[in-house]
């Protein structure tokens, strides 16, 4: 009798445990799918199109490069470590059966490197149909570049500003320019153009470093709107994208992830709510491919739809002032300033 009761209790307990495991797994899968965002369903082919992707050796940039290569595009992706980039180039060529994938060196923290990269582009192609400004850093320690600007500011904004301006003559009619921004831009409530680029050695704390990142992404968004307005008549379409929180190497400087204990504690939560690079790349791909966006420019996208960016990011006067300052910061001559 007691043995039968014990067997019944064990069976019921096991069944209950399996029930919770099953539906717990389904709940986690559902939450992860919801957090992952929608999927780009565009089937557009990119034969005879030339694409540039900055920061293409890992994370979002690598995913975007691969997906566009499958569609037949000729692609230049950039790398700071050229040896690593060339190895990835060969892997992508073999994987996608697309021989027109090229890795070129680009260090956004060095204006000379940007000019050299543009020279490489001029030799490789007659036009650029799609420019994806993806490279970036997050939570980088206060440090000065060779051009005397803050690393976060130059990598995320000023380097891309110079690159985009220098590529203007190459942009084809009906081309697209995508800036990978962030919802963090809305954390900046005011922008001082006299100090935003300055290295603050005292900015070692979490809030200060995060503010540097937010400032750089706000500048990128302001510039995207200015660029869209300047080249609207040429048919150049400009999109800013918030990919969401994505599991990429960009987080390598974030203190909560550099500490092994904190990283282990966060890992289950991050697995559920943080997007994979493939999930994070969907809105970038949507803006690159969707024919439905051909009449839109200067807007901000998240989860495949246009959304309102912060009020400050829509300040036309601030956008114009930032452009004027950026020309000076980047050392652009009058002949290199178009429209």
From TrEMBL:
InterPro entries: NAD(P)-bd_dom_sf, SDR_fam
The UniProt record lists the keyword Phosphoprotein: no
Gene3D superfamilies the record matches: NAD(P)-binding Rossmann-like Domain
Keywords from the named record: Oxidoreductase
GO terms, molecular function: oxidoreductase activity
Keyword Electron transport: no
Official protein name in the record: Uncharacterized protein
